[in-house]
Amino acid sequence: MRRNKAYDTIIIGGGPAGSTAAAVLSLHGRRVLVLEKEKFPRYHIGESLMPYCYFPLERIGVIERMKTSHFPKKYSVQFVSLNGKVSQPFYFFQHFDHPAAQTWQVLRSEFDAMLLYNARDKGATVLEETKVTQLLQDNGAVVGVKAVNKAGEERAFHAPITIDASGRDAFSVARNRWRVPDQKLKKVALWTYYKGALRDPGLDEGATTVAFLPFKGWFWYIPLPDDLVSVGIVADREYLFDETRDLATIWQREVQKNRWITQHLAPGKQVCAPGVKDGPFYTTSEWSYRSKYCAADGLVLAGDAFGFLDPVFSSGVFLALKSGELAADAVHAALVAGDVSAERFRDYGDTMRKGIEAMRKLVYAFYDHEFSMREFINQYPHLRGDLTDCLIGHLFRDFDELFARVAEFAQLPEPLPHGRPLGLL
Ligand SMILES: Cc1cc2nc3c(=O)[nH]c(=O)nc-3n(C[C@H](O)[C@H](O)[C@H](O)COP(=O)(O)OP(=O)(O)OC[C@H]3O[C@@H](n4cnc5c(N)ncnc54)[C@H](O)[C@@H]3O)c2cc1C
Asked: What is the mean pLDDT of residues 232-254?
């Protein structure tokens, strides 16, 4: 087995979290190695961005490319009731006057490739088709990884610190059994794509639509480039799969339950996911979770590897970008201090936990049968701004009053204790 030169940081996974961390560390002048098991561009679900994605994207220098891209512009989120009635859209520009008030619906293959190549342009070494298979340890601290490339060659890479940004695979979390499921958010998703389906006119052309199903299931409807629409269902497993496991039958059954969805899909033709031969239906389960720890000595987690939250408010990519950015800054500071122990990442873990908990409360409220956004805003109009802050990703602030009032309508969860550095709980 060949040995390699040492890097300052190894990053497992070149998705939004890993690529952002790689770009930020490279901008700090660090020698970074990204190991990505796939060849980019590769398909990925998670296409609707939140306005606050703007800031990490600006920092790593890709915002101008986003502005000139062909990705549909997203100005709002709208909700559609079971009988097909559309809510007043939440237009982000009504809340804040900044270019970030307009965001995008992205083809993840193109978006993720842009971020990964940007990290390379900033100086990171990126090895695609190279799968990490083992964490290397010395006295309990992570000191590098073993990885296998496409040709089957195994190599060891060394660095004082490794960022695990391996997404829902959650490489180190799975191996250490750190994954703690959020018991109340055990959902499944079933999704597909349509060409030529309806788009709303004008400003609403690129809106994300959340359309309700019985028992608090819901559809997402996300307009993409090239006349493509991503459309999917999130619901309880029992609700979706009780009668049959045939995906086409389930899909047709559910589409008929929401008039807006039926009408919007009617002129369209179902197709496979962009760049994917198998399909046209895709599923995932094993829903929301958090890692028990955010870091161990020589290791820190970012993006979905740290935690995954139900996608109803499109928070995943934002949390991935933000955690990649914050983890990279924390890693840089740890390297400057010559101390990459788990404790160095306490503040990082606390910040991420706080943001995730705000979003998690909103997700719980969404699934609570007693909660309606419209009624809530009617009763507490002065809290519309706080609620919109959550919806746009302005998450790292206090929401004490908002959630005290939301708790009058919905049962909200206690913060999870997980996500602190290992050994210090
Ligand atoms: C059904 C569904 C709908 C969603 N909708 C939205 C949405 O509308 N908006 C939104 O913001 N988010 C959405 N999300 C969430 C979003 O997809 C994720 O939060 C986001 O992709 C996380 O980015 P990441 O960089 O952490 O992980 P990923 O994007 O998954 O990237 C991880 C990378 O690591 C690589 N990798 C894994 N293991 C290894 C290994 N051993 N060695 C090397 N490389 C490895 C993978 O190949 C991958 O490229 C959705 C998720 C689901 C499941």
From this structure: 95
Task: Give 425's pLDDT tier (boundaries 50, 70, 90).
Answer: very low
The ligand 1 site (C-beta within 6 Å) comprises 12-18, 35-38, 44-48, 131-132, 165-169, 171, 189, 284, 303-304, 311, 314-318, 320
CATH class belonging to 187-284: alpha beta
Q: pLDDT tier at 418 (50, 70, 90 boundaries)?
A: confident
In the chain, where are the structural domains located?
Answer: 2-71+106-181+289-353, 187-284, 368-416
Ligand 1, closest atom to CA 13? 34
The CATH topology of domain 2-71+106-181+289-353 is: FAD/NAD(P)-binding domain (3.50.50)
Cα gap 326→304, rounded to integer Å: 14
Q: Which residues of 195-219 are buried (b: 16+ CB within 10 A; e: fewer)?
A: eebbbbeeebebbbbbbbbeebbbb
Please give the distance, rounded to the nearest whole angstrom, from the Cα atom of residue 408 to the centre of ligand 1.
34
